[in-house]
Specification:
5 helices, alpha+beta
C-alpha cells in the first residue's frame, strides 16, 4: 500500500539520492499536446536542496520539451524506481521552473552540483514538491547497475561555450517545443558563473 509524505527527509531522501536513474514527466495544457517523459541519470546532476525542493541539471543533447512545459504551466512529476533492494516506486509531483544561465539564481544553484556541472549545462530545473508518494513497485524488475555512460559528457566537453550555443540554435525543438511553445531562450544566454 502506498504512502504519502510531508517532506523529503530520512529514508525518502536517502532513496532518492541512491538511485542512479530517475524520470521526469511534463505536459502542455492543451489536450492534444505532446506529453514528455525523459530519463535522467548522469551522476551528481540531481540534488535535494531542502525538505520540499529538488533541482537537477538540464543539459543539451535533445529537445527542450520539459523546459517548454514548465514555462507554460510549471507542472512536473519526478519518479524513481528501485531496481535493486526492496521494491519501491517514488513520485514527487510538483511545480517546476527552469533557471537559465543568465538568471541571478544560477550562480547560487550551480555550485550545488560540484563536478557534475560541465559543458552543455543549459538550465537548472528547480522542483518544489506538492505531493510526495510511493507505491509498492512489485512489478519493477530487478536490474543490475553497471556504470555511467560517458559519451554525453565527453561529446559536450569537446565544444566551447560558443560552439554549444550554436549547436543549440541549429537543433530542432530546442527554442520551440513540438507543440510550438517557447522553450530554451535563444540565443543561448552566456553563463553568469
Amino acid at each position: 500500500m502506498g504512502q504519502t509524505y510531508e517532506r523529503i527527509e530520512g529514508r525518502i531522501r536517502t532513496f532518492i539520492e541512491e538511485q542512479p536513474l530517475f524520470f521526469t514527466a511534463t505536459a502542455p495544457l492543451t489536450g492534444d499536446g505532446h506529453i514528455n517523459l525523459s530519463p535522467k541519470g548522469r551522476k551528481g546532476t540531481l540534488v535535494v536542496i531542502d525538505e520540499l525542493t529538488l533541482a537537477y541539471l538540464d543539459f543539451g543533447g535533445s529537445g527542450a520539451e520539459t523546459i517548454a512545459h514548465l514555462r507554460e504551466n510549471g507542472r512536473i512529476t519526478l519518479m524513481w524506481c528501485a531496481f535493486s533492494g526492496a521494491p519501491k516506486v517514488l513520485r514527487v509531483h510538483g511545480e517546476g521552473e527552469a533557471v537559465f544561465r543568465d538568471d541571478p539564481r544560477w550562480a547560487e544553484l550551480i555550485p550545488l552540483f560540484g563536478e557534475a556541472d560541465g559543458a552543455g549545462a543549459r538550465a537548472v530545473i528547480v522542483v518544489r514538491a506538492l505531493r510526495i508518494g510511493d507505491a509498492c513497485g512489485f512489478a519493477v524488475p530487478f536490474m543490475d547497475y553497471r556504470e555511467e555512460r560517458t559519451q554525453h559528457a565527453e561529446h559536450l566537453a569537446r565544444k566551447t561555450d560558443e560552439e554549444f550555443a550554436a549547436y543549440c540554435e541549429q537543433k530542432p525543438h530546442v527554442g520551440v517545443s513540438l507543440d510550438g511553445l517557447p522553450a530554451l531562450p535563444l540565443p543561448l544566454p552566456a553563463r553568469t558563473s
